[in-house]
Design a protein that fits this description.
Layout: E1 5-11, H1 32-42, E2 49-54, H2 57-66, E3 71-75, H3 87-97, E4 102-106, H4 115-127, E5 134-141, E6 146-147, E7 150-151, E8 170-181, H5 182-188, E9 196-200, H6 203-206, H7 212-226
């Protein structure tokens, strides 16, 4: 039986750090991050449906232009669409609107996670379901990490300044993808299970837009990858591709 992969894509109005972040023109692309992400998700053959959760009329307009059977827009309740809304509250809401199957939660603020990358993530998740109950993307931290006056990830009694390659790596959750079965949301009130598979993304692919400087850097990176001649306002064409698939790395790590 086919494993259905359904995307939950949150895009509320009212971004405070970067006004109109989801929809304003991004590196020459009209429809911005919203359009880029919907193209990426539509073009991934392993994704069955995309639920856009929004209270933003401009997001609704952009989503409707695609005229895709994959896309379904759900207007998010006002009480779950403010800057004070907790992620935990939104997680509790997700299974109420999502169909049965597996839920892939992703964000438009990760514009370098392409269709190809989503495909690789989904394939790895399905392969590992016998041993893991969920997946989330992470980025390796292998640097000198301190908390107050002591190092966190190395022992200065053994070596004060070890080579960073020998430091025990930590794993930062980069919020690129969370993937698990719908019933995990219902039973755990969480978007991961008790035993998540950690899928490593390189820094460039995992780049997340949070603040205005992030937005400007991402625009420059996107432009450098595609150039203005490759940008199109035609909504039936995709943009983003991995320049070097070997940059995408994944690693099996048992949580805890």
């Amino acid at each position: 039986m086919k494993q259905r992969i359904n995307v939950f894509l949150p895009m509320r109005a009212g971004s405070e750090r970067v006004p109109n972040k989801n929809t304003k023109t991004f590196s020459g692309v009209q429809g911005g991050l919203c359009k880029i992400k919907l193209e990426q998700l539509i073009n991934c053959s392993l994704i069955d449906s995309i639920l856009v959760s929004t209270n933003d009329p401009e997001v609704v307009k952009i989503a409707n232009i695609f005229n895709s059977k994959k896309i379904r827009v759900i207007i998010r309740p006002n009480e779950l669409a403010s800057s004070s809304t907790s992620t935990d509250d939104l997680i509790k809401y997700v299974p109420e609107v999502m169909p049965d199957g597996h839920i892939l939660w992703t964000h438009v603020t990760s514009p370098f996670i392409s269709s190809e990358v989503y495909g690789q993530i989904i394939e790895r998740y399905l392969e590992k379901l016998e041993d893991f109950d969920s997946l989330m993307t992470v980025t390796k931290l292998q640097k000198f990490i301190w908390k107050d006056s002591d190092p966190v990830n190395y022992n200065r009694n053994l070596e004060k300044w070890p080579n960073t390659q020998t430091i025990e790596p930590l794993w930062e959750v980069n919020s690129g993808v969370f993937l698990t079965k719908k019933h995990i949301y219902q039973t755990n009130n969480d978007r991961i299970g008790d035993k998540p598979y950690l899928f490593e993304l390189s820094d460039d692919i995992a780049f997340d837009i949070d603040w205005l400087p992030d937005y400007k850097i991402a625009e420059a990176l996107y432009f450098s990858m595609h150039g203005i001649s490759e940008l199109s306002n035609n909504y039936d064409k995709g943009h983003l591709k991995i320049n070097n698939p070997k940059q995408l790395k994944e690693r099996e790590i048992r949580s805890g």
